[in-house]
Amino acid sequence: MPPPTMRRVATKIFLTFAVALAAFALVAALAVVRLQDLGRDLKLLTSGYFPLGRIATQLEVKDWVASRALEVRDLDPAARRAYLPVVRAHFPALVREKLQEGRRVARAAAAFGGDEDVKLLDEVIARLDALGARWVQYDDAANALLDLLEKGGTREAVEVRVQETRALEKSLTLEVKLLQAQLESRISDQVRAAEAAESRTVVLIILYSAIALMVGVAAALIARRLLAPIERLTEGVKAVAGGDLTRQVAVAGQDEIALLAREFNAMASSLDSQRTELRRAERLAAVGRISAQITHEVRNPLNAIGLNAELLAEELEALPGVAPEARALCAAISGEVDRLNALTEEYLRFARAPRSPAGRHEPVELVGSLLDFLAPELSAAGIEVRRELPAGLPSVRGDEARLRAVLLNLVRNAREAMPGGGTLTVAARRADGVIELEVRDTGAGISPEALPRLFDPFYSTKERGTGLGLAFVQEVVQEHGGTVSCDGAPGQGARFTIRLPAAPEEKSATPASAAEPVNP
Predict the structure, then answer these.
(1) Which positions ≥6 away from 294 have C-beta within 8 Å?
(2) Is 244 a member of any domain?
(3) Is the distance from CB of 417 to CB of 494 less than 8 angstroms?
(4) Based on the domain organization, do 328 and 392 belong to the same domain?
């Protein structure tokens, strides 16, 4: 199964703040778009509809030619000739310029207006064109009326011209009023629309800004949550630096902080184990030095006592009439001296400096030879030996004598655990690059309270045990780069498992004569 992909904390934080930044960017974009639309509407008002409304107002004529012509008709010829130039001069010839200006403004406004505005402005241009055509007619009719008055036409002819001119004046007035009404209505609608758009823009900007703000706050909270393991990891580092090697940092996930936390926990556990092993090694070294010194001081007097006891026993044998109790007492002294000598030898062996692994040894041969040596002793104790020793196992590298002593300790412990007889199983196998040697008995088993302390020096479950045998076993196995463990339960026997690294296979050199054939 492939390892899970690591999700980096920096990437998570970047994505979190990228989302927040995108939210604020959307708000800004919305504001820009809405303000552009509002600006376009305002520009359409200020550059289009307002000027057109002003032009439409200027097109409204208050003093038409027809009313002036009626005033001139009733004058005498001399006054008429004097007043007609004033009437012609008062005639609003500026209308044509205003119509042209209106068309120009409408076309310019249509260039940046919407579809509805373009349609309306086209209608305004069409009205202005119609007004221009009507105004040409009116101009011709007005000039004809004034010419008739200047020539002194009859009253009936002047009345006919006045009625025609007045009809054109009314038509022009109506067209101008309609244009003004259309522009005023559009200006009112445009102003209301601009006010509504402004209100909507403000509301939307406030709403989206609040949403963006919440997204930003959420991004900050997520970033804080992502960085919270760093604070816990820092506290764990401080605790370990203060000596608390049992401190574990709980960080879940697949990012680099979680990986760092797991490595930190493994490091703390390793340091705790190393500190425990160091304390144990220091304690064993101190015990070894004390044991060696005490043994050295006790051994010489013991030898002297044993020698004197043997001499005393010989003297008692030569004397007649010595009570048998005296001879038994001398024999008991000699036996105790021998037992104490054996005990001091065990202490010396435990205190002896470790030896470096030496040669290569076949585990099956090593175990088999030891079992052959102990076969009479085990048979006499009523113990059946089962061997599970497959052939072809890799060799191990080490000190044969010390490895043999380790196995001897375990086998004899198994024999002592089965005083009434039983089954002893000794197995060897290969597992994950190591050689496992297993010694299993069917004795009384080991209590759960005793299991953690089995390999402690001077701890023993036997009445007269020294508590150094299993400590010696662990020391030798660790010297050889291996481990030893025990499991068992009351009434179910005990099983000791030794794991030693398999020795690398040696590559034999190919002889030159075999590698290169000789040409005849």
Answers:
(1) 347
(2) no
(3) yes
(4) no
CATH number of the domain where residue 190 is located: 1.20.120
Which tens digits make up the pLDDT trace of 334-356?
777 777 776 666 666 655 545 54
Q: Please tell me the distance from the alpha carbon of residue 158 to that of residue 168, in angstroms, as a whole number.
A: 15
From CA 508, how far away is CA 510, in angstroms rounded? 6
Residues 6+ apart with CB under 8 A from 87: 65, 68, 69, 72, 146
One-letter amino acid for residue 342 of the chain? A
Best CA proximity match to 502, nearest among 364, 372, 368, 405: 364
**Contact between 494 and 488 (Cβ < 8 Å):** yes
Range of the domain at 385: 359-501
- Among 154, 171, 201, give the residue marking a domain's end: 201
Residue type, 499: R
Residue 511 pLDDT: 45
Whole-angstrom Cα distance, residue 359 to residue 395? 10
Distance CA 171, CA 193 (A): 33
Q: How far apart are CA 24 and CA 216, in angstroms?
A: 8
Rounded-to-integer distance, Cα 124 and Cα 464, Å: 124
Say what the alpha-carbon torsion angle 428, 430, 432, 437 is, to the nearest 10 degrees: 10
Count of other CB atoms within 10 angstroms of residue 181: 11
196 shares its domain with 52: yes
Count other C-beta atoms under 10 Å from residue 74's C-beta.
9
Task: Scan for tokens 């780069």, then name that residue.
Answer: 481
Same domain for 59 and 182, yes or no, is: yes
| Element holding 383 (H helix, E strand) | strand 383-388
The count of other CB atoms within 10 Å of the CB of residue 236 is 21
What DSSP designation does 453 have? G
Same domain, 395 and 482: yes
pLDDT in tens, 124-177: 888 888 888 888 887 788 778 777 777 777 777 878 887 887 888 788 888 888
Q: From CA 423, how far away is CA 517, in angstroms rounded? A: 57
pLDDT at 163: 83
Name the pLDDT band for 439 (thresholds 50, 70, 90).
Answer: very high
Shared domain for 177 and 260, answered yes or no, is: no
